[in-house]
Design a protein that fits this description.
Elements (H helix, E strand, L loop, with lengths): L12 H4 L2 E5 L5 E2 L3 E5 L1 H8 L14 H6 L2
Parallel strand pairs: 1-3
Antiparallel strand pairs: 1-2
């Protein structure tokens, strides 16, 4: 839900546009584009604008998502 809701309503749709979020601990893939991989919790924290520890998110899109925090 967070990834589908507009930023103006507290979501992250614009933030994750162009990214593929792939969970390592669940069968979850959201979006398409540059891949970001991490646990469901780390992905949710990042798209919610919360900090995640270094190394929790990996992949070519991790830096893009980290800048959005």
């Amino acid at each position: 839900m967070q990834a589908r809701t507009s930023v103006s309503f507290g979501g992250a749709r614009e933030t994750v546009s162009g990214l593929c979020l792939r969970a390592t601990d669940a069968d979850l893939v959201i979006g398409s584009g540059t891949e970001v991989t991490g646990t469901v919790l780390a992905l949710l924290l990042a798209v919610s604008g919360r900090p995640v520890r270094p190394g929790e998110l990996v992949g070519p899109g991790a830096a893009v998502l980290a800048r959005a925090e």
